[in-house]
Each structure stands twice: as structure tokens, then as C-alpha cells.
Specification:
binds nicotinamide-adenine-dinucleotide; about 15% strand; alpha/beta; seven-stranded parallel β-sheet; about 350 residues
Length: about 350
């Protein structure tokens, strides 16, 4: 349909947000996409160079913790829908600075909900879509059990606790005020434009520069990995067709033990750099496990498949190959985003 929409995408300069903004801008020229981002260390407009001149795209630098600014943005741009991704997203940082996670993830979400509630009139067509994580469900033992939409929340890290709290607020606004909402909880994402503090880009970068690969504990923790563009496609689908008030799990049915994933990365980088395959395994360095490290996450996305017909499009090996090539070909982007704040953080975490 050609219905005009004014969509506020928060956190659009971040990793997943930039893929969502790109998809929406390119696919729906009749929508106005307002990207609102504070540009923290994790937000980089360099992630959006290819679309920044599009006539249906607009960038606004604001902090979601500023309620007045949020109200102003809703009014100025006649915002009728929100896709909310802005968050502090790195578990390790949440362990050293839990306050900023509560502020941004909980209070920031509440500010957006309240701005929506005060601006939107009943009977109009609206949607508040909150992007969340599978980490709210806690940890699974090894085996076949998966997180479903009915799994009880059981967060363990300050990051997952803050995301769980924000999910609860979003549902409370639906149940209390009738705000039209939808939530999706996704597994670990990987792909281009991910800030190189997260496992996959960090390790690609370190392998390339022959730096140690810090592996938590014995590397036995299991994560389910999804290519970021597949997540963006799921978000597009849920935004347009998801049942209001519902939750959808998004995952790749693609579980990997950390250490096995790291070996795949090493083989791929070595091969693409013309080194002997597996040569860089010597860089693996086991470090003290992360406090409260969840053993296993695995998500059941059957509902999304059955109701909306979504499936991951890429095999993992294909996705990893694409991703490694992208980071090797985009050293300039890496240099740009890793200058400044990240250097300070990296030294604090891993020494030098
Ligand atoms: P990211 O850290 O790469 O990006 C976050 C963005 O939010 C950045 O651009 C940052 O500048 C912006 N931001 C932070 N605080 C802000 C504030 N106070 N005001 C305005 N903007 C602010 O994160 P990501 O990995 O792209 O994750 C995006 C969302 O998806 C998050 O809500 C996260 O919880 C969720 N999620 C991530 C994953 C994953 O694997 N990365 C998986 C599931 C869900």
C-alpha cells in the first residue's frame, strides 16, 4: 500500500538499526524515516553513507533519556509509528556500568512510550515496535529445549535485566492504555557494521592483526546466530503484519559453541588472507569467564515462520564468509569507528 507513514527509528546509527533504516528507506520511498540517535561510542553515521542523501530519510541527534526532546520529535515530525532499537547493548559494559543501562534501556523506553501515549489519538493508525533480545529468558542447559514466546523471563545480567524491564513497560502500556505495540526477541546478530567490541568483528580484527583472541572460560557457551539482514527482514515483516499486542521470537536455528564458532572464523580469515588454514589458532587465549555468564541461548522462531512465513535466508557458512570479507574489505570503517572511546575501553578490558 502507498499509505504515507512517518516512522521514528531509534538507534538507527547502530549495528542492527542501520540495517533496518537502510531496508526501510530503500524499500518504502513513500515513508519518511526519521533516524533518532544520540551517537554514543556505538552509533556511527558512517554506517549509513549510502542512504544519507535519500529524500525520505532524516537524521535527528537526540538522547531518548530527554523526555521533552522526545515529545518535541513526535510533534515536529508527526510520528505515527516507532521502531525502537536505541539501547546500551554490550553485556560486559553493563557489568561495569549498570546505571547507564537502566537509564537508556528502561527510562529511555519509558520516555518514548509516554511521548507516544500523549501524542497519539485513539482511532488513528499507530504502532510502537520494541526490539528486544532472547537474553531476557535467561539461560538454558545443553540439550534440545528452546526459548518460546511463553518462556518465563529470567534475566541474569544488568543488560538483560534492563531489556526485560523495558519489555514489561511496553506490555504495560498496551494493557493499561491500549497503546498498539509489538515486541520481538532476537538471538545474537552478526554481519557488517557491528561495533568491534562484539565477538565476531573483534575476533576478525584481532586475527587479521595477530592479536590474542580472548575466549571466556572454556569457550563452551552456546549462542544462536542470525545474519543481521535476516533480522532486518523479520522486523519489516513484523512491523507490517505482526499481530498488535503480540511477541515474536526471531532466531536462526543455528547454535554454536563459542570455541567452534571461533575456529570457523579463524579458518575463514586465514584462508581469505592467504595464510595456512588454522594457523591463527595459536592466538586463542582463555580468560576468566564473564560473571554470571549464561550457558546457552537458543530460540524457537516457529511462530514467526508459521504466522508470517519468515525464515533465515543464509546458511551460516555463507553468512560468515560474507561477514569476514566485509570486515577485511572495510578496514577504513573499522579504523574510523575504533578511534577514540573504544580504544580506551579496549585497554581497560584487555590491557595492551
Ligand atoms: P548498538 O549498540 O550497535 O547500537 C545502539 C544504538 O543506540 C547506537 O547507535 C547508539 O548511539 C544508540 N543509543 C544508545 N543510547 C542512546 C540514547 N540514550 N539515545 C539515543 N540513542 C542511543 O546495538 P545493536 O546491536 O544494533 O542493538 C540494537 C537493539 O537490538 C538493542 O535494543 C538491542 O538490545 C537489540 N538486540 C541486539 C542483538 C544483537 O545481537 N546485537 C540481538 C537482539 C536484540
Amino acid at each position: 500500500s502507498q499509505i504515507k507513514k512517518n516512522i521514528l527509528i531509534t538507534g538507527g546509527a547502530g549495528f542492527i538499526g542501520s540495517h533496518v533504516v537502510r531496508l526501510m528507506v530503500n524499500r518504502y520511498p513513500h515513508y519518511r524515516i526519521v533516524n533518532l540517535d544520540k551517537l554514543t561510542y556505538a552509533g556511527n553515521l558512517a554506517n549509513l553513507r549510502d542512504i544519507e542523501k535519500s529524500p525520505n530519510y532524516l537524521f535527528v541527534r537526540e538522547d531518548i533519556c530527554d523526555f521533552e526532546a522526545m515529545q518535541r520529535v513526535f510533534e515536529t515530525y508527526a510520528i505515527d509509528s516507532v521502531i525502537h532499537l536505541a539501547a546500551e547493548s554490550h553485556v560486559d559494559r553493563s557489568i561495569t556500568d549498570p546505571f547507564s543501562f537502566a537509564r537508556t534501556n528502561v527510562m529511555g523506553t519509558l520516555n518514548l512510550l509516554e511521548a507516544a501515549r500523549r501524542t497519539w489519538k485513539p482511532g488513528e493508525e499507530h504502532l510502537f515496535y520494541h526490539i528486544s533480545t532472547d537474553e531476557v529468558y535467561g539461560s538454558l542447559p545443553f540439550g534440545d529445549i528452546l526459548f518460546t514466546e511463553e518462556t518465563r523471563y529470567d534475566p541474569h545480567s544488568p543488560y538483560s535485566a534492563s531489556k526485560a524491564a523495558s519489555d514489561h513497560f511496553v506490555r504495560a502500556y498496551h494493557d493499561t492504555y491500549g497503546l498498539p505495540i509489538v515486541i520481538s526477541n532476537c538471538s545474537n546478530n552478526y554481519g557488517p557494521y557491528q561495533f568491534p567490541e562484539k565477538l565476531i568483528p573483534l575476533f576478525i580484527n584481532n586475527i587479521r592483526h595477530n592479536k590474542p583472541l580472548p575466549v571466556y572460560g572454556k569457550g563452551e557457551n552456546v549462542r544462536d546466530w542470525l545474519y543481521v539482514e535476516d533480522h532486518a527482514r523479520a522486523i519489516d515483516l513484523i512491523f507490517h503484519k505482526g499481530k498488535r499486542g503480540d511477541t515474536y521470537n526471531i532466531g536462526g536455528f543455528n547454535e554454536w559453541k563459542n570455541i567452534d564458532l571461533i575456529k570457523v572464523l579463524i579458518r575463514t580469515v586465514d584462508r581469505l588472507l592467504g595464510r595456512k588454514e588454522g594457523e591463527s589458532e595459536k592466538l586463542i587465549t582463555y580468560v576468566t569467564d564473564r560473571a554470571g555468564h549464561d550457558l546457552r541461548y537458543a530460540i524457537d522462531s516457529t511462530k514467526l515462520k508459521n504466522e508470517l512465513g519468515w525464515e533465515p535466508s543464509l546458511q551460516f557458512e555463507e553468512g560468515i564468509e560474507k561477514t569476514v570479507r566485509w570486515y577485511l574489505d572495510n578496514q577504513e570503517w573499522l579504523d574510523e569507528v575504533t578511534s577514540g572511546d573504544y580504544q580506551h575501553y579496549y585497554r581497560k578490558m584487555y590491557g595492551e
